[in-house]
């Protein structure tokens, strides 16, 4: 089962069933778990980057993304302008998902115990190799000595390091296109801000 996390449980949203089917159909392609995340950058300009799907938050349709809290500019911009949109294209099945919603930033400074627990669960669900990235040089800083990177080690049983940050995108609208069947579906959550809200679909 591709994607990890609570991928197959409680598929309550119609678009999520389509997404899981696409993940399964493209599971043999490593890049099928990569997608583009667009946010609002400084001065209202668009900012975009490629990130990795880290599964769904438990009992939720929220999409999880790992990032480095030392990316102060990026984290600060998202906290100020939490709107985001995912563009996810599956090259084998010719399916595209554009998923827009609100992004929540969960770093070690969060005052919410539930968010800290979710951050910890996501940390342990990540591979040790992925966790090691949070112990390397800060993003955007040149690496003067490769030996420093090679010598970094981590205790697999240790909790999240300060640099680890979990992002979750809470979907509000999903635009699905299947280029093979020429099918397009638009899904809109009828009660924005309410995870239990119903979804309305139209062609």
TrEMBL record:
Q: A Gene Ontology molecular-function term?
A: pyridoxamine phosphate oxidase activity
Residue ranges of domain Pyridoxamine 5'-phosphate oxidase Alr4036 family FMN-binding in the record = 13-106
- Identify the SUPFAM superfamilies for this entry: FMN-binding split barrel
Enzyme class, UniProt record, top EC level: oxidoreductase
Question: Pfam families under this entry?
Answer: Pyridox_oxase_2 (PF12766)
Q: Which cofactors must be present for this protein to function?
A: FMN
Fetch the Gene3D superfamilies from UniProt: Electron Transport, Fmn-binding Protein, Chain A (2.30.110.10)
Q: Which UniProt keywords apply?
A: Flavoprotein, FMN, Oxidoreductase
Q: In which pathway does it act?
A: Cofactor metabolism; pyridoxal 5'-phosphate salvage; pyridoxal 5'-phosphate from pyridoxine 5'-phosphate: step 1/1; Cofactor metabolism; pyridoxal 5'-phosphate salvage; pyridoxal 5'-phosphate from pyridoxamine 5'-phosphate: step 1/1
- EC identifiers of the protein: 1.4.3.5
Known InterPro entries for this protein? Pyridox_Oxase, Pyridox_Oxase_Alr4036_FMN-bd, Split_barrel_FMN-bd
An individual GO BP term: pyridoxine biosynthetic process
Q: Which PANTHER family match?
A: PYRIDOXINE-5-PHOSPHATE OXIDASE, PYRIDOXINE_PYRIDOXAMINE 5'-PHOSPHATE OXIDASE 2
What's the protein here called? Answer: pyridoxal 5'-phosphate synthase
């Amino acid at each position: 089962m591709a994607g990890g996390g609570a991928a197959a449980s409680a598929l309550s949203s119609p678009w999520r069933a389509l997404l899981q089917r696409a993940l399964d159909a493209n599971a043999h392609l490593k890049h099928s778990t990569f997608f583009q995340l667009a946010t609002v950058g400084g001065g209202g300009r668009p900012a975009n980057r490629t990130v990795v799907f880290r599964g769904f938050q438990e009992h939720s349709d929220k999409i999880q993304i790992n990032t480095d809290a030392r990316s102060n500019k990026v984290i600060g911009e998202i906290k100020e302008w939490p709107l985001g949109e995912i563009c996810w294209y599956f090259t084998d099945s010719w399916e595209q998902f554009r998923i827009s919603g609100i992004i929540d930033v969960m770093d070690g400074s969060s005052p919410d115990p539930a968010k800290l627990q979710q951050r910890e669960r996501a940390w342990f669900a990540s591979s040790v190799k992925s966790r090691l990235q949070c112990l390397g040089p800060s993003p955007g800083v040149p690496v003067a000595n490769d030996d420093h990177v090679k010598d970094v080690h981590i205790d697999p049983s240790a909790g999240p390091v300060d640099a680890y940050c979990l992002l979750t995108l809470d979907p509000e609208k999903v635009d699905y296109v299947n280029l093979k069947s020429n099918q397009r579906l638009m899904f809109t959550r009828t009660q924005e801000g309410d995870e239990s809200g119903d979804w309305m679909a139209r062609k």
